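Quick one: structure for this chain?
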Amino acid sequence: MPVHPSAHPLILHKITQMRKATTSKKYLSQLMKEVSTFLCYEATASLKLEACDVKTCVGDEKGQKIAERVGIVPVLRGGLGMVESMTEMVSNAQVWHLGIYRDKTSLLPIEYYNKLPKKVTVHTVFVLDPMPISGATAVAAIDILKAWGESMKPQRELAIVFVCIVASTAAIQFISEAHPQVPIHVGLVDAASIMPGMGDIADRLFGTDGAELMTDEQDGMVDE
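Got it. Here's what it folds into:
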């Protein structure tokens, strides 16, 4: 099972700050960006390299460069908070968006937004979803990407990597069983019901949770 929980002290420390109910929207956004940077570093370790020539200050030299074209697919809305970190690390990555929600009656994932191009133009796609709870949305996103990547066969297969900040054990198991070949990079794995979680991370990130305005102290960016 290609599941890679991070044991990095900084990631675990910053996730604790993200969990705090008093963490302001501004600070939460900063923390998400920082944690996503660390996870991106770990998740991109499998990218392939190729040799290249480089002109240095002292002459020509041999070097290496990323041999793959990379795509980034944030799952709306929460995944948007992870995009900037990924694009800063992989500056030539292409970004597309998927919108999927879970129907309250059937509990099935419903696709409502899809901006994937008709032609597959990348080799590897990183799916970003900060907090999968059941894993159904993540599996639906991967299903969509695998179907999209069918046009690449038989020459090659689209590589998909799933990146999340906090996930429930149930979500990890569900994703792994549905797509055992997809690596999962996760900051921290919570209990089956994703407790304590991070609240409704998208609402907190975009200020749509209806919460009262923070006090000056709460709105500060003090890393306690």
